[in-house]
Amino acid sequence: MTVLEMLKPNAGLRVLVTGGASGIGLVIARAFVDAGSRVHVCDASQQAIDALLEAERLAESNPITATLADVSDAAAVERVFTDLQSQLGGLDVLINNAGIAGPTAGIDELDMSEWKQTIDVNLNAQFYFVRRAVPLLRSSPFGGAIIALSSVAGRLGYAYRTPYSATKWAVVGITKSLAIELGPVGIRVNAIQPGIVKGPRIERVIEARARQLGIPYEQMEKQYLEKISLRRMTTPEEVAATALFLCSPGGSGISGQAISVCGNVEVL
Length: 268
What we know:
The protein is α/β, with parallel strands linked by helices. The protein has helices spanning about 25-35, 45-60, 75-90, 110-135, 160-180, 200-215, 215-225, 235-245; strands at about 15-20, 40-45, 65-70, 95, 145-150, 190-195, 260.
């Protein structure tokens, strides 16, 4: 195998992407399909799933299959794996992508229900999926891989976004611990830390932060970009490309790492 060939994932990988019917998750799912993988996604939005399945029908490609599921509900996670076994018959790659932005507020103003929801979706769900995925990954002929979506907020402090940042730091802790635990059986575990990713989600975050600080949206956006060394947002495709590399033969020696794809965000 040449070095160039090593940059492409093995054909036929069975991949599960959580939160995979829209946003970064959907871009990752489609990237794996383009690389010859079989992909199942779960998502909390029936509307997003319906749109995805309709697009897959029109494309007449190797279809992405899907399960409606709230990832913070352990019973729903069980249903995802029942569907996964039916559709793919096993698992080679878990992309633990699902997450929410959480509230924007000072620590003394945070609503406790919003704190709990952020922990449930961004952290507890990672545990629910890894717990069920690992027995399947042990049987993968490719060795098995887990990629957790953390955030640049998982290596930097983030004022007024404490719940989100706390969960993303915790994801890195899970990643490094599981890499040690699962490495002897050939399962690699890494985290990707996207920065300010172009799309509707960051627009909502910037809008909420601008409202919190009482400044115009454009001024808030300019402040965000000035904190990035490259002075531009990251694209979802750049995040997906990193996921593909980590699951390729070229990435087979990488485990226990938190890889920032952020243009070098200097501070949040």
